[in-house]
Amino acid sequence: VQLQASGGGLVQAGGSLRLSCAASGRIFSLNVMGWYRRAPGKERELVASITSADDSTHYADSVEGRFTISRDNAKNTVNLQMNSLKPEDTAIYYCSAVRIDYVRYWGRGTLVTVSS
Question: In Å, how far are 18, 57, 98, 104, 107 from 84, measured between CA atoms?
Fold first, then answer.
């Protein structure tokens, strides 16, 4: 499985960005897809995830109500719509996928910078 993330960039506080993660390869084996981030000086944290079985979603408390994760099965992509961005959302965002046998894949990070 290969994951290709895109959509990062520079935005002012209060603005929006949309991240996309395109999956290729044995995608039928994927169970959960999600986005993680690592801010400067902080540990990596889960931002949002979505399951393949029933599209159930999970969000970190810090982004609940501002970020929305969704899947586009036709394009084999997972998107993260980020609204009302804050400077503390500045981080490298990583797409991740977990196979049904719990093998995890990572995409290359994409930088999101939110200016105040």
Answer: 12, 19, 28, 30, 25
Tokens 């969000």 belong to residue? 59
Residue 7 confidence class, pLDDT cut points 50, 70, 90? very high
Dihedral over alpha carbons 52, 58, 59, 65 (to 10 degrees): 90
Contact yes or no for 21/35 (Cβ under 8 A): yes
Residue 28: predicted pLDDT: 76
Q: What is the token pair recorded at 85?
A: 């961005």
* CA dist list (Å): 21 to 14, 52, 90, 95, 101: 23, 15, 18, 6, 21
CA-closest candidate to residue 20, choices 32, 33, 38 = 33
Give the pLDDT score at 37: 98
Residue type, 76: N
Token output for 27: 């995608």
Torsion, CA 68, CA 73, CA 78, CA 83, rounded to 10 = -30
